[in-house]
């Protein structure tokens, strides 16, 4: 299922402009064609679930595919309920640099912020 980020983010993730630009920059450095940003949830961490963000060349049956200004983002069907409405941002400050996820579906998280439940 392919949806436009502009028309439907209620079932998918929300990628800020800063996050999309950083991911596209990293993707260009990879130098490979056909890669998309995959966002998924995996069992693990001290709170039970962890986020995974990586570049992937596979489109799995049932993936939710969104386009953010030319960047394809894929979420597998098992992760969609956990990530629906989650906002992914990229911060670059003196205190912190990296991707952040603000997830309205998370009931809580661990002290390190890497896992949630």
Automatic annotation (TrEMBL):
PROSITE patterns from the UniProt entry: HESB (PS01152)
Any Pfam family hit: Fe-S_biosyn
Gene Ontology annotations of biological process type: iron-sulfur cluster assembly
Domain Core: from-to ranges: 14-114
Alphabetized Gene3D superfamilies for the sequence: HesB-like domain
GO terms assigned for molecular function: 2 iron, 2 sulfur cluster binding; 4 iron, 4 sulfur cluster binding; iron ion binding
InterPro entries: ATAP, ATAP_core_dom, FeS_cluster_insertion_CS, HesB-like_dom_sf
Matches recorded under NCBIfam families: iron-sulfur cluster assembly accessory protein (TIGR00049)
PANTHER family linked to this entry: IRON-SULFUR CLUSTER ASSEMBLY 2 HOMOLOG, MITOCHONDRIAL
Record's protein name: Core domain-containing protein
Species: Actinoallomurus iriomotensis
């Amino acid at each position: 299922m392919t949806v436009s980020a502009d028309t439907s983010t209620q079932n998918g993730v929300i990628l800020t402009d800063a996050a999309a630009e950083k991911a596209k920059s990293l993707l260009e450095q990879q130098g490979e064609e056909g890669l998309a940003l995959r966002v998924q949830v995996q069992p693990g961490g001290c709170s039970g679930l962890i986020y995974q963000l990586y570049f992937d060349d596979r489109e799995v049956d049932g993936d939710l595919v969104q386009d953010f200004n030319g960047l394809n983002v894929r979420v597998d069907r098992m992760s969609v309920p956990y990530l629906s409405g989650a906002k992914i941002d990229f911060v670059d400050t003196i205190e912190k640099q990296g991707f952040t996820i603000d997830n309205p579906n998370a009931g809580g998280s661990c002290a390190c912020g890497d896992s949630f439940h």
